[in-house]
Amino acid sequence: MNGAAVGGRQMQQRAGNQLHQRQYSSDHFFPDAGNGGGGSKWLQPGGVAYSQQVDYSRMLRSLHKGTSGEFSMSGEPLTPPLTSRSSSQRKNGEEVSPSELSPGILDLHSFDTELLPEQVTGAGFGAGPLGYGRNMDELETSFSSNKPMSRNLVPSENTLLKSFSVDKEKSSAVAKIKVVVRKRPLNKKEIAKKEDDIITIVPSTNSLTVHETKLKVDLTEYLEKHEFVFDAVLDENVSNEEVYHETVEPIIPAIFQRTKATCFAYGQTGNGKTYTMQPLPLKASQDILRHMHHTYRNQGFHLYVSFFEIYGGKLFDLLNDRRKLCMREDGKQKVCIVGLQEYRVSSLDTIKDLIEKGNATRSTGTTGANEESSRSHAILQLAIKKTVDGSESKPARIVGKLSFIDLAGSERGADTTDNDKQTRIEGAEINKSLLALKECIRALDNDQVHIPFRGSKLTEVLRDSFVGDSRTVMISCVSPNSGSCEHTLNTLRYADRVKSLSKGNSKKDLSSATLNVKESVAAPISFSRFEVNSGDTGEDQKPGWSKQVEKEAFLSYNSVSSGREEDLVISSHAKHFRANSRSSSTAEVFDYSEEVYEPDKPSWRKGKAEAYSAVPADGKTRRVDSLAKRRDSQNEDANCFDSDDDLNELLKEEEDLVMAHRRQVEETLNIVREEMRLLDEADQPGNQLDEYISRLNAVLSQKAAGIVNLQTRLAHFQQHLTEKHILVSSLGP
Ligand SMILES: Nc1ncnc2c1ncn2[C@@H]1O[C@H](COP(=O)(O)OP(=O)(O)OP(=O)(O)O)[C@@H](O)[C@H]1O
């Protein structure tokens, strides 16, 4: 984790199943004013365990000032005396007691999302050069200042309307799902071990190539290139500021227009997720505040911050002494997080304090790859709410929300062997939620009726952020060292899957179906050592999805199962089986490439669908893949079996798949036999022979693991096939 950014996290020793917590170095934000008790406490207003919408910044400021009030830009008093409660605690201007407050439930989503009026205030800053690009100090000054704005800073109404529509345009132009990859630099340890940087990036084409060293059967090394294209690819020289510009900045305007956006970082432990994620909320807050005070000035918008973590399937409030939270669903299936503290904020300093406080309280642990690894998913939410009829006494309505998720580091089962039991349990829980997250994104983008939000706490909590008008930005963090090659490929494949969920991309794939090649570019290592960061613009690096050149061997002999679901890319039609095997965790190790089939449905994604001419003008679906139209849930599967031909075709393909697996196992066995024969025949003197034998042994054990893996997969496929047969026969003639 990024110790520097957090500024003083300390890891406590884990005792048994106890959490690791980062202790915030300064717990002195507030004296225990309300209780009059001794010692400092972190925001315990009145010492009452009520929730929720604490006007934190007012309290902070009034504490700093020691006065009973401050003034908003409009000149109205904002801050109640320290001893009084925030505006949310007032009822028609009267003080109310905590017992009259909400019953301890913060329903982040209980208020109907409100459509903004299609107009902006006639005064204030525009979002143009005046609004953007100023530093935070200036920004703060302008936010907290009660001075009237200088005349020449006030743009015309036209300019404002223009900037507003530019914002709208910008936000609607942002893809529903954006996948960005960030490569971190080699760290000291890796440099000391003289590890190679195996990733080359060509920013101009958003492409990234992983150069994997592999062994042939005769034990000579060769390089295999895996090439990927994403929405953006950021190399090790890219700053956090640039990451923000590339990822979150474009979606800020959308948050004011009923959009819920989610930005999350994904990647192996120690790859820079926290380093990447931590600065983003503050930068986003800066932009949100700027919009509130300029484009949407005097429209009753307020910003609220909450910060919690999911650790071991449980929720903890990071801004309220790790208070345990419960998640509930109301009758409308809206998610309520009971007890979550939410702070109304209007200054960047306050937000910064809150973020630091939350980060310092997160659960951390030590993994093989990161001494201070996040063992939890941390979710920081910035909610924009609007007062109803300009009344402070009524609960504000949520307009939009931006969630930042610093996912716990993904690591493979294989890497956790040296970890204690707790760490391994954490790892399993983490991987489960990552899988669930991908499943949800996949289902959403396929317009599936059933979205498997219940797959994990993470997805349950995020349900609200994914339905309706939503935006998702995924930042995949990868490390460049050769030792992490397999992890890196797994991460990139996960990202690639998420990216390929986008119908738009799928359509591009389909329109160039044969171009969606899966090939490897291999060369003997002695001849083809790549130049690190040489801007490897080889011939095979062409822009566009069709250039996705990745070795995805049907089943690579050399790949030893890591137990992670990204490890395998088997075949598009196999996705069917997933629906039937959701309950089986082992079945979830399978991942499937997919050629997504696009029915022309009227939905919130229609705009995107229309962008692609592959959908026939008559609106009828075009058969691209006999299987694709029946891929989602079991019910959907059953409903979609149109004809016996389709069913037979499906069964045939599945049988072929099983046969192919069988062949793979047999071929692998043959290789092992051949190697054993070689071993027996090896007629080499002394040391050389020993060395040769030990190398062969290494290869053999690798193969043996591969065989076990293949056999397991084969068994699963056979099981699925049987289930399919049963399903087919149950459908009757
Ligand atoms: N782009 C980068 N530039 C410089 N240093 C980086 C970069 N990315 C990560 N680091 C450094 O690498 C280390 C690990 O990063 P970080 O803690 O963010 O990893 P992580 O992916 O969050 O790990 P985990 O999942 O275990 O929490 C930190 O010391 C961080 O400062």
TrEMBL record:
Q: Where does ATP bind?
A: 267-274
**A matching Pfam family:** Kinesin
- Highest taxon listed in the record's lineage: Eukaryota
Q: Does the keyword ATP-binding apply?
A: yes
Q: Would you kindly state one Gene Ontology biological process term found in this protein's UniProt entry?
A: regulation of cell wall organization or biogenesis
Query: What sequence ranges are listed for the domain Kinesin motor?
Result: 176-501
Family assignment?
Belongs to the TRAFAC class myosin-kinesin ATPase superfamily. Kinesin family. KIN-13 subfamily.
Name listed for the protein in its UniProt record: Kinesin-like protein
- Tell me the lineage of the source organism: Eukaryota, Viridiplantae, Streptophyta, Embryophyta, Tracheophyta
